[in-house]
Amino acid sequence: MDSLIPFTTSGSLVDCVDKKVLIVLRDGRKLVGVLRSYDQFANLVLEDSYERIFHGLEYADVWKGVFVIRGENVVLLGEIDLDVEDEVPLVQVPLQQILPLHNAENETRKKNEVEKANILMEHGFVKEGGEGDGY
Questions:
Q1: Per the count of CB atoms within 10 A, which of 20, 120, 121, 132 is most buried?
Q2: Planar angle of CA 64, 105, 126, nearest 5 degrees
């Protein structure tokens, strides 16, 4: 009976070890690499990793190497299907071409988040990291 209960803990990551994965972090960054290790807190170790920066259907990669990720920063982790990876309709471009567009997009997003936080604060909510946000 217990074997029918799916993994809901970091133990479910065992199938992803030594496979190429895509990880989305809380701050919006996307990392691609080979998952080498993890622990009970879902802290991850990626090898041969790079940050993938997207803008529309274009992307650029920034080499990171070995990367340790604290589990609480992981929003999404998924295995990359190597057979389908080359069929994705994305175009790789030089980093210098996409970086200004990406930075402008990030600045706009940050301004929107500040505006949203101020509106929420006017209605009684606390800014992230503010009083009452500790655990």
A1: 20
A2: 95
